[in-house]
Amino acid sequence: MEIVAPAPQENPEPPPFPAGDGAGRPTLVGADRARLAEVVRDLGEKPFRARQLWHWIYHRGVRDFEEMTSISRPVRAKLAERYTLVRPVPAEAQVSTDGTRKWLLRFPDASEAEMVFIPEEDRGTLCISSQVGCTLNCRFCHTGTQPWVRNLDAGEIVGQLMLARDALGDWPSANEDRHITNIVMMGMGEPLYNYDNVARAAGILIDGDGIAISRRKLTLSTAGVVPVMQRCGEELGVNLAVSLHAVTDAIRDEIVPLNRRYPIADLLDACRNYGGINNARRITFEYVMLKGVNDSDADARELVRLLKDIPAKINLIPFNPWPGAPYECSSRNRIRAFTTICLDGGLTCTVRTPRGRDIMAACGQLKSASERKRAGV
Question: What's the alpha-carbon Rg for the chain, to the nearest Å?
Answer without folding.
Answer: 21
